[in-house]
Amino acid sequence: MLNMISGLARTLYILLAVVAGFVALGMFDVALVLVVLGLIAGITLPAERQVLAGVTVIALPILGTALTHIPAIGEQLSAVTANLQLGVAGAVATALAIRFYGLAVEGIPGLGGAAGGKKATA
């Protein structure tokens, strides 16, 4: 169920990023919605894709700047890349928070459920 919700949030932020890049949506704060959807999507971001997502967050503004030079549609494509960056950044933030939580729990004996602790004796 969590995978379905996370996947739906990912799909929605991609669609919203593209639509908001071409059409002005003044009825709500698009940036906030993109970040929230990204935060939800990041819950199930696998560890092997976290580095790729982080690099994507860094590369999207560069790509957007390059796309600006395309006549007639460059500004819209740049807006799409900026919107996508917001969604992916939200996903990376959630994935990092989950990863750091796991590291913190691992570092506290008895909390992580690791086999390193002593068993209680009666």
List the helices and strands and how they pair.
Blueprint: H1 2-22, H2 30-41, H3 47-67, H4 74-107
Helix pairs in contact: 1-2, 1-4, 2-4, 3-4
Short synopsis of the structure:
By secondary structure, the protein is mostly helical.
Helical content (DSSP H or I, runs of 4+)? over 70%
Order of helices and strands: HHHH
Intertermini distance: 41 Å
- Number of separate structural domains: 1
- Return the structural class: mainly alpha
| Strand segment tally | 0
Query: What would you call the quaternary organization?
Result: single chain
Distinct helical segment count: 4
Query: Which residues form runs of ≥5 with pLDDT under 50?
Result: none
What is the average of the pLDDT values?
Answer: 91
Shape: elongated
Report what the structure shows.
The protein has 122 residues and is mainly α. It has one domain. α1 runs antiparallel to α2, α1 packs antiparallel against α4 and α3 packs antiparallel against α4. It is elongated and about 75 Å long. The termini are far apart.
